[in-house]
What we know:
The complex is a heterotrimer. By secondary structure, chain B is α+β, with helices and mostly antiparallel strands. Chain B has 2 helices and 4 strands; from the N terminus they run βββαβα. Chain B has a 4-stranded mixed beta sheet, with helices on one face. By secondary structure, chain C is mainly beta. Chain C starts with 9 loop residues before the first strand and ends in a 5-residue tail after the last strand. Chains in contact: A-B, A-C. Chains A and B meet through helix 2 of A and helix 2 of B. Chain B: Its EC number is 4.1.3.6. Chain B: It holds the Pfam family ACP. Chain B: It comes from Geomonas propionica.
Amino acid sequence: MAGFKLRRSLLYVPGNMPSMLQNIPIFNCDSVIIDLEDAVPLSEKDAARHLVRHFLLNYTDRNKELLVRINPLDTKWGYEDLKVVLPAMPDGIRLPKADTPEIVERLDTLLTEFEEELEVEIGRFGILPSLESALGVINAVGIANSSERIFALAFGAEDYTASMEIERSRGGEELFNARTRVLWAAKAKGIQAVDTIFADVSDMEGLRNETELAKRLGYTGKCLVNPRQIEVVHDVFAPKQHEVEYALQVIEAIQRARQLGTGVIALGGKMVDAPVVKRAARVLRTAYAHGMVDTLIDEEAIHGAQ
Amino acid sequence: MKIVKKAQAGTMQSSDLMVFLEPAETLNVTIESTVLKQFGALIRAKVDEMLQKHGIDAGEVRITDRGALDYAIEARLETAIMRGTEG
Amino acid sequence: MEGLWYKECSNGRRFIIKITPGESLTTRLLQFAHLTDVRYAMIVSALGSVKNVRLRGIKTGAKLPITPPRVTIHDIEGPCELLGLQGNIVPGEDDLLDCHFHIMMSKSSGEVVGGHLYEAEVFATCEIILTELDVSGVERHVSKVGGIPTIYIDEEAP
């Protein structure tokens, strides 16, 4: 996998609030989403984009991924957001209301035009489409394939539940199908899936449960609304020590098996073969990114020599 | 450019500032700040720089600062000027 | 007249063309034109089956000029039924013949795909009816505005 990049926590920061913007360097999340959309009242859309522009122009030695959530492209603010903010070189754009592949394609061609104007490498700006409606979830597969700029798919439950006219519950059963479909589309395309926010900042246990569910389904990142949520999310996504040890044993066992000329072997009474090895490799890659192991596992250890 | 109508930008939050602009014959800049003693001169220099950059040489400019950094001063002035010279 | 250019042409010779398996559609058609000294032609009909087809679509919201990042290239291994080939052969840069074709083809599911044709290979067979056009003062050059080769019509040319 090209440059395994950890994106466990994506923290929303309101675009019109200097006190929050200038704390971005000290938050220890992996990624920040500076919001020009719902966090900014209609009367302040112009002020927010200029504030964000000047902030980004001044924030030069960056220590995390910087995304900007613009207003939807079919509003009068979306294009202006891009025009003002892109020259300040964010890493990517989170696109709200990504309901169809065509909407994402339109952002793709707009970003190309700006890159040509700014004379930077075509494809430099990434796209994080937010699937947050019944239509968006239905079109997940088409959307995932609509642009090579897309590095992950984000599921947005707040707007999704609004579009479905249902309420969010603590258990999240009402989101199960939508979460899974967004996940399949992302995995089928080989990109990351990012889970929705957990709005109740005082309910850390609820946040942990929801993050664990998302992880169990296959999500590898989650959006956050408050810096206090970062630690819980990182803790959930970090491999547990026993998982790392087991993964190391799996690699060792499969290498022994290959010396015996077989591709399958028993480990502690359980079968170990290629899919088990692949899962172990993923754990070790994530562990490496967390600094829990000091060597990155290589392809040959995973697949064996030809 | 000329300030053609009353305009304002910014918020009263900490680390932010409010900018008030009004049309006037001469240029008059007044600054209130929670950190006036330490940073008054720096704020004034940044305000003058931005006004000059946007070719504003007349108007009533009132700043109430709550410890804003340079980027916020530049942004809020730019937005106020845009709003005040529009149309 | 700005926005619309035209030139009357009359029918020249008509040809039935067969291209054999594995051959490139575009290369062989241009070669045919050279052999028979056809300078202007249009495809009347084309059917058969094709594979290793490269075609393109233009992305939503793309603006002129059409450049690589604004198009999506599709490489379709096929084989597919060739449903149709629209297009023409017109002299291009420094009088070399140039062709412009759009292709339509169907997958086994009946799903139809198509677009601006770059390249295609004949699978089982390819039967083309082509009509030569008698006309002059029509040439294809790369348009700076459009970013792609387009037809230029000199209405005064005899």
